[in-house]
Design a protein that fits this description.
alpha/beta; 11-stranded mixed sheet; 15 helices; globular
Length: about 550
């Protein structure tokens, strides 16, 4: 566990709550594409550590890394942190504590939880031991308390962030909380002026746990509160594909609610929409790539307006996985991330989805409204803090093929909607689902929606193959994509497709019902019997 400048040692997670925790689940991001150090994760650590130091926040902050990497030794992991902290250009003098959860430490936790609680084994495995989008997030967050910012390992918080000031006549729309979407990173070609603005990571934590009236008395001033929010991000991407034109999009408040109804609303979560390459709809990205003969469509965004803080109660569009939450008692008795079991999907003879669903954040945008009603405390999401996060998707790690990306996203999102329709909360903030009968069937329109979108991708494959008759490699690629999609759709037989998907959805809903039953018990045991008693195993980085 040693390295020239630092090492990891076996330790326990401090029982005292940190003022702020930044956590990051990771898998195979300790090395770059050539197998060298640092990888994307090392660059993420450096960006967080330098920002915390520059804002004088390092002393009472923590970085917690949840690692699922199987092919990287502890020396390589140490080397990433050494590079991040002892960088020759500007070493970090005052750093946050850095903790690592890995397979070894999580196995110790799982063994104790299994012995003491005897939970459903498949729930325990998915909460602590298995890989997957939601699995890695939940395992990382299970022992965390207080204000927690969850980030992905291909993001960063730059020291300063660019803002493009450009003519409103050329790029109409709401300026506040807006970005310009372009087909390249040459934003200077659009005209206007790019200036660098201060960027604060601390701003992501400051509104958490405070009421709107309290925030209005402070530096934020007027804080609009709306039932929903306006999000034109995905429309901008469609416009770029159809017309090839750059455009402005914004994420802002909708029609404000009455002031008397908003004053006592507590901010329970902070949503952050990244710039660079934000998370547009997976199926739109896949369709664009197929239409471009397998070549990814170049696209970048740049902030194009000042941040303006607002609050909203729910959202029709998904909230990014870059999110800060106040994991206090009452807001931590349910999983924020949508946990499913990929083994259930693989039992489907059509193999419509063969990996984990890409839907871990599909429930987040609609959790707080029913929770508010149940616990008697109005809650809201905040957005528009002065924390700008850059997303640059990594070229390392696991990357499923295009049909898998589309199917895993569409099927996962569709099942998440079924969860939303039946999800209930108790006065203690515990979530539950009713029993799922053997005869459960998906609403026909839900299955048809997934079927038609995947069928449309197959049609795109044929269209591209017919248009590129002089390019045999492209034709072969399109035919392979078409064949893959055909198998996932039962040779385009809707009734067979839906019959198998009914079973898959039923079993995933039953699994999630078990997750909701066991999650608060596992969480409370880990917090009360392990963290608060200074017994939760981790690895601590020391210089």
């Amino acid at each position: 566990m040693t390295h020239a400048h630092g090492r990891f040692e076996s330790a326990t997670l401090p029982k005292e709550e940190a003022a702020r925790t930044i956590c990051c689940p990771t898998r195979s991001r300790w090395q770059d594409a050539a197998g060298n150090t640092p990888g994307e994760l090392g660059r993420w650590i450096r960006s967080i550590a330098t920002k915390l130091e520059s804002e004088n926040l390092a002393e009472d902050s923590r970085i917690v890394i949840g690692d699922q990497t199987a092919d990287c030794d502890i020396q390589q992991k140490t080397a990433n942190i050494v590079w991040a902290i002892h960088h020759p250009d500007r070493p970090v003098q005052q750093r946050p504590e850095i903790f690592l959860q890995d397979t070894e430490t999580r196995t110790l936790v799982a063994d104790e939880v299994r012995e003491r609680l005897r939970p459903c084994e498949r729930v325990l495995e998915n909460l602590l031991l298995r890989s997957g989008y939601a699995q890695s997030r939940l395992a990382t967050e299970l022992p965390l308390l207080g204000k927690v910012l969850s980030m992905d390992d291909d993001t960063s918080v730059p020291a300063s962030a660019p803002v493009l000031e450009i003519c409103l006549d050329d790029f109409p729309g709401t300026v506040e909380n807006s970005q310009i979407l372009h087909s390249s990173d040459r934003f200077s070609d659009l005209g206007g002026q790019i200036s660098m603005r201060p960027n604060r990571i601390g701003a992501a934590f400051e509104p958490l746990g405070r009421t709107v009236s309290d925030l209005r008395r402070g530096a934020l001033g007027s804080v609009p509160v709306s039932f929903g929010r306006s999000d034109t991000m995905h429309l901008a991407f469609e416009r770029m594909l159809q017309k090839g034109e750059p455009s402005r999009f914004s994420i802002s408040h909708a029609e404000p609610v009455h002031e008397n109804e908003s004053r006592n609303i507590e901010i329970a979560a902070i949503a952050i929409t990244e710039y660079g390459i934000p998370d547009f709809r997976t199926v739109a990205i896949v369709d664009a790539t197929i239409s471009n003969a397998g070549r990814p469509i170049e696209h970048r965004t740049i902030p194009a307006g000042e941040n303006g803080f607002f609050a909203f109660r729910h959202s029709e569009t998904h909230i990014s996985s870059c999110i800060a939450r106040n994991l206090r008692i009452g807001l931590d008795n349910f999983p924020w991330w949508f946990l499913t079991d990929d083994r259930i999907s693989r039992r489907n003879p059509l193999q419509t989805v063969r990996t984990s669903y890409r839907s871990d954040n599909e429930l987040i945008a609609n959790l707080l409204l029913p929770l508010s009603t149940a616990i008697g405390q109005p809650l809201a999401y905040g957005q528009g803090v002065s924390t700008r996060v850059l997303h640059q998707p990594a070229n390392t790690g696991h990357r499923p093929n295009l049909p898998e990306q589309a199917a895993a996203s569409l099927v996962g999102a569709m099942i998440a909607v079924q969860v939303q329709r039946h999800l209930e909360f108790s006065p203690g903030g515990v979530a539950s689902l009713p029993e799922i009968s053997d005869s459960y069937k998906l609403p026909k329109d839900a299955a048809v929606g997934v079927f038609e979108q995947l069928e449309s991708l197959a049609t795109s494959c044929l269209r591209v193959a017919n248009a590129e008759t002089s390019l045999p490699d492209t034709i072969t690629w399109c035919e392979a994509m078409y064949g893959d999609l055909s198998r996932r759709l039962a040779d385009f037989n809707l009734s067979v497709f839906k019959a198998e998907l009914d079973i898959e959805a039923r079993d995933q809903l039953r699994f999630y019902r078990d997750v909701l039953l066991w999650y608060p018990r596992v969480r409370r045991y880990i917090i009360d019997e392990m963290v608060r008693k200074d017994r939760f195993p981790v690895k601590r980085y020391i210089d």
